[in-house]
Design a protein that fits this description.
Strand order of the largest sheet: 9-8-10-7-11-12-13
CATH architecture of the largest domain: 3-Layer(aba) Sandwich
Distance between the termini: 40 Å
Order of helices and strands: EHEEHEHEHEEHEHEHEHEHEHEHH
Low-confidence stretches: none
Mean pLDDT: 96
Structural class: alpha/beta
Strand content: 15-25%
Radius of gyration: 20 Å
Number of helices: 12
Largest sheet: 7 strands, parallel
CATH superfamily of the largest domain: P-loop containing nucleotide triphosphate hydrolases
Helix content: 25-40%
Length: 353
């Protein structure tokens, strides 16, 4: 694996660094050897990110290179900003990395390979700028045609009620948990972090022309099924069905012909992320379950993002909600996903018989 550092521009202890958080929790594509974050230098990543690896955090690039000269071959932009723009504080660090010969991995909408200064500098230093969200050319996009009916795997869409609630993390935990239980399982990534973590099948949802989203999703599922024959496929959701800034989720239910949904909720949010000024509230879990089931697919479990909650508050909330909705309510970070692995195993047996 290529050794990489992650640049987070002082945002490592915020939700804007969810890409970095995912990578320090685990990746099969890169070996993360350091994080550069001016506000958290001297700490270890697992002091900030639950279930993270103890990756050292450095205040500056100079600090990293003084401790680890020549160790990294890549630098990764570990932030997911509103609108996908490059934080000004990170640009000088990218320039320094390119001058030192590090390849750049960028998951933002702002394409760095289109930046004349960075592109010219990369060429002079023999460095590649990899823009994960660079749209595919039109001629390579796939239109949905119904071939999804050939995919007989048990397909679970992991949806959420908002952005940045932990859908990908839950999907990844479940993928690893089911594999440990001996069940051939794959995850379909739909965002840049999933690719960076090493998922082998998927596409970048928000870098795809709208007409082809369903087809690209179908194509990823077909390729995954044909090559791996998984018994279970988990599909990473994006945004939320009722998020007015980017409603999303129906594709993962309908176009993927999902058999079930696991819904991730975030109790301590009233309004959608970044839309606190707008008069649209995040729906209750029960209300969102009703909407999803209107699509003809059951919600088999709820998972909870416990931001802003103490462990005792989270457990009490989960217990009370489970009594209300009558399906399992699980805290993936606090409790793990073993209970969901058992549930999926039972449902899989019914699906295959």
């Amino acid at each position: 694996m290529n050794k990489a550092i992650i640049l987070t521009g002082g945002l490592f202890d915020t939700s804007y660094a969810k890409t970095a958080h995912g990578l320090v929790r685990g990746t099969e594509r890169f070996d993360i050897v350091g994080i550069v974050d001016e506000n958290n230098g001297g700490k270890l990543a697992n002091e900030i990110v639950p279930h993270g690896r103890p990756v050292p955090v450095y205040s500056t690039l100079s600090d990293f290179f003084s401790h680890m000269p020549g160790l990294a071959s890549h630098c990764i932009l570990g932030v997911a900003t509103k609108g996908g723009t490059l934080p000004p504080s990170i640009r000088p660090q990218i320039i320094e990395c390119i001058r030192l010969g590090l390849h750049v991995v960028n998951g933002l909408h702002q394409l760095l390979s289109d930046d004349p200064e960075l592109n010219e500098l990369a060429g002079r230093n023999g460095v590649e700028i990899l823009d994960i969200r660079k749209p595919k050319p039109f001629h390579s996009l796939r239109f949905w045609d119904g071939s999804i009916e050939r995919v007989s795997s048990y397909k679970i869409a992991v949806l959420g009620t908002d952005c940045s609630v932990g859908k990908r993390t839950t999907a990844r935990f479940l993928t690893l948990g089911l594999r440990e239980a001996g069940i051939n399982t794959e995850m379909i990534y739909t965002g840049q972090t999933g690719w960076m973590q090493g998922a082998g099948y998927g596409f970048i949802f928000d870098a795809t022309l709208n007409d082809f989203i369903s087809g690209e999703l179908e194509g990823a599922l077909l390729k995954c099924f044909n090559e791996k024959q998984p018994r279970v496929i988990l599909i990473e959701g994006q945004s939320g069905l009722r998020n007015p800034s980017g409603p999303c989720g129906a594709e993962f239910i309908l176009s993927a012909a999902s058999n079930a949904v696991i819904l991730q909720i975030v109790p301590n949010r009233t309004y959608f992320t970044g839309l606190e000024y707008y008069p649209a509230k995040i729906p209750s879990a029960g209300d969102e379950i009703k909407l999803i089931e209107c699509y003809g697919v059951p919600v088999i479990a709820l998972t909870v993002n416990t931001e802003g909650m103490s462990p005792d508050e989270a457990l009490l909330f989960a217990t009370n909600l489970e009594n209300e909705v009558n399906i399992p309510v699980v805290l993936p970070i606090g409790q793990g996903v073993g209970r969901l692995v058992n549930l999926i195993t039972k449902n899989l047996e019914k699906h295959e018989n």
